[in-house]
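Deviations from the work plan: none for this task. Representative record:
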Amino acid sequence: MTLPFPILIIIVPLITAFFIPIVGWWRRGLCYPLVIVALSVSVVSSIAILHMVGEQGTIRYYLGSWDPPWGIEYVIDHLNAFMAVIVSAISLLVAISSKRSVERELPQKIVYFYCLFLLQVTGLLGIVVTGDMFNLYVFLEIASLAGYALIAIGEDGAPFASFNYMIYGTIGACFYLLSVGYLYVVTGSLNMADLSTILPRLYHSKVVLMAFAFFIVGVGLKMALFPLHVWLPDAYTYAPSAVSALVAPLMTKVGAYVLIRIIFTVFKPSFSVAVIPATTILSWVAIIAILFGCILALGQTDLKRMLAYVLIAEVGYIALGVGLANKAGLTGAILHILNDALMMACLFLVVGAILYKVGLRNVHQFRYLHRKMPITMAAFTITALSVIGIPPTCGFFSKWYLVLGAISAGRWLFTAILLLSSLLNAILFFRVIENVYFEPADAHHGGGHEEISIDEAPLSMLIPILIVTAGILSLGILSGKIISSIIEFAVPPGL
Amino acid sequence: MELIISKYNYWVYIILMMIGFYAMIGKRNLVKKLVGMNIFQTAIILYFVSTGAKRGATIPIVEHGHGEVAHAIQAAHYVNPLPHVLMLTAIVVMVSTFGVALAIIIMLYRRYNTLEEDEILELRK
């Protein structure tokens, strides 16, 4: 008997999303607790699933009891379960912290905001658990459509940024759909497991090659891989802060997951590595993405925009791990999905808290902020250290595996650039930290040393930030265990 | 020539797709971009639908399928229903994308009083 957990992960947020407008019409205050309850159910079921997968291996759930390859199946192996826990946990934390900032930024639209929020989470979770190519497309579009709408309700430039995002996102989704069509024409199947057994005989077919190319470009657009990232900075800068905190850590990571699925599960490494040099090209693109993201981030004074460029670099790290296509590299990539989701969530939550409390985004105006919001800024500093890659934090370990992967692939240039990017990140974040913590010299001579009282962010914002920060610190120490109990099994055999 | 005539459905979809793609990337008016997006998506739907069609085939309902099946079912006599069903979902996705896009365009027009990309960029400076 199959337990209903795989479907619970998705169905609970989906149904709740439809109930929210009805409930909100009656009592607006009920929306927030309802969202928290729905997402908590998702978190609990995804953790239960992770536990079950650890004990009994891959779980399959047939929708409507139709056997694959005819019916849609939800397949949950170690990688899926791992991603489901990340997505549901981060979205729960962001939902908790969104209460005050949504009340402030979008007072008229609370009900619809939460409805779209849940739809977005449903889409992201659906992408993660499904084992069917076309079903994945549908969930990808649910997540993207909710994302376009959520971004468009932001500040001044948001609708235009969202429109651009939509044009790029639709091109990406259509490319994905087209390649699903190509694969269907040559194999007659849409099921991922089925495809991976049929495809090896067709690896030299031109249709399969085209399908693979369209997949990479389509998913690359969705995950903002370097030359296809143009929509990202504007969209994530102008979005409401709760939305940035949700989409920035999750949308790109889920895209990276789809990339790993396609390159290593639907197509076997024997195709993506041996038949065409796809992974080599991917790793070069990723290296340029890392440098480009870090260097452009240096030029930004708006903290949110700076983080958007850091995010492009982080996507580059994950793509680099995938492109290296060896065990250490892919381990680093999967670990970096987790670490980066935590780091980006924490950074964007901190930005949200600062915006809520002092309304500042320009890095140069952050003076004395450490006295005003000591806990928030401490969390920011720890996360910044993690992005740079300082040992006790989790960011160090994924970079360590990426460097190991680059060395074992014999690519010394990549190793050098990985280290250089850490330096660039250090410059980037110390510039912010310097502005926050170090007071200008003349302040001490000017006589009146003005007292600034502590004025922390509200608890509903502070608690998620602290949980994520604790996660960043503890997952760094636990990363050995995560690798040996989850990621070991997620890396495809034969790499 | 043979290649063009025997596979004309694919040529049509490629041409339509390129027209849509050009409009999405090249045009500076947002509504034209949107129309391009629609053509682009419709081209892909056309591709899927044409892969399922067969000349001289009928709808895939097996008559007297219950009980004793007297004759073997010949797949060539029936169209493939699956791409068509997939496209129903894709059309729903397309329509909702179009809806969201129109809503955003209305927001943009209220804010800037224009739908020309250049003018909006000029106003945003």
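Residues 81-112 of chain B form the longest helix (32 residues).
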